[in-house]
TrEMBL record:
GO terms under cellular component: cytoplasm
Enzyme class: isomerase
Keywords: Isomerase
Lineage top rank: taxon: Eukaryota
GO biological process: carbohydrate metabolic process
Annotated EC: 5.1.3.15
Family according to the record: Belongs to the glucose-6-phosphate 1-epimerase family.
Organism: Canna indica (Indian-shot)
One of the record's GO molecular function terms: glucose-6-phosphate 1-epimerase activity
Transmembrane parts of this sequence: none
Entry protein name: glucose-6-phosphate 1-epimerase
Length: 293
């Protein structure tokens, strides 16, 4: 379909008239709605929609580099590329058989890409919407018989929350994290949950495969299940940083929280013919969480 900018989008809808749907622009999920048609991902009201530049929000794919401590642009080039529909995806052995609608996308390096990152890769991305509205993303990166190469990766997931000061993350307690606000110095999480009173920009290391993000006002819990993604990025820019971002409304930091399944501390190295898989499953369930504020 074409959207308001006349930009090609893929929209996945569950059959039988329910309102659950996922919209994609290139390899970026830009909208995920539940069966009541509620939007579950954050999109900035000031997003700059200049394809293929990633818009601020949804779930941009950070590949082959997370952050800016490498030779490539911030978060790598994959999120700024137009992907193609993959008509003939190789079979996946992770399909649990449950009924879902899916689209398969493919990204291969262009001549330009090979100039800045000279590695032969095929990146296959399968995005699925289950009947109950759960969103699954499966990334498969294969080294197509080039020399070995190393990459880092993240599903840069902007969750929509009602009020960041009433949100808590469970599942990261006692973990070590690298704090991007102090040159990635290493700390250990002391709290019984991660809560938010100021800017947070951390990479939690060696996390469990299930993380919960509890939104008090909406009485909603995001359950994040992941495989092959040992690290979790947690980011909220808060007020001061937001004001310096042209593509984020001044107060919008209150309605967003990035919780990214990622591989950063120990990047992946693929030998010729090897393949890496990173699976992320998001669900949004009603919760009776009441903040202790
Ligand atoms: O940790 C997440 C992060 O690296 C933050 O430092 C912030 O830069 C965020 O990603 C957004 O990056 P972007 O390039 O999308 O503005």
């Amino acid at each position: 379909t074409k959207d308001w900018n006349g930009i090609d989008q893929v929209v996945l809808r569950v059959p039988r008239g329910a309102s659950a749907r996922v919209s994609l622009h290139g390899g970026q999920v830009i909208s995920w709605r539940n069966e009541r048609g509620e939007e579950l991902l954050f999109s900035s009201s000031k997003a700059i929609f200049k394809p293929p530049k990633a818009m601020r929000g949804g779930i941009p794919i950070c590949f082959p580099q997370f952050g800016n401590c490498g030779s490539l642009e911030q978060h790598g080039f994959a999120r700024n590329k137009m992907w193609s529909i993959d008509d003939d995806p190789p079979p996946l052995n992770t399909n649990d058989g449950s009924e879902r609608v899916s689209v398969n996308l493919l990204l291969k390096p262009s001549e330009d890409d090979l100039k800045c990152w000279p590695h032969c890769f095929e990146f296959r991305l399968k995005i699925s919407l289950a009947m109950d509205g759960d969103l699954t993303m499966i990334s498969r990166v294969r080294n197509i018989n080039g020399k070995p190469y190393t990459f880092s990766f993240a599903y840069h997931t902007y969750l929509s929350v009602s009020d960041i000061s009433e949100v808590r993350i469970e599942g990261l307690e006692t973990l070590d994290y690298l704090d991007n606000l102090v040159q990635r110095e290493r700390f250990t999480e002391q709290g019984d949950a991660v809560t938010f009173e100021s800017e947070v920009d951390r990479i939690y290391l060696g996390s469990p495969n299930v993380i919960a993000v509890l939104d008090h006002e909406k009485k909603r819990t995001f359950v994040i299940r992941k495989e092959g993604l040992p690290d979790v990025v947690v980011w909220n820019p808060w007020e001061k940083k937001s004001k310096s971002m042209v593509d984020l409304g001044d107060d919008e930091y209150k309605q967003m929280l990035c919780v990214d399944g990622a591989v950063i501390e120990k990047p992946i190295t693929l030998k010729p013919g090897e393949e890496w898989t990173g699976l992320l499953e998001l669900s949004a369930v009603p919760s009776t969480y009441c903040s202790d504020h």
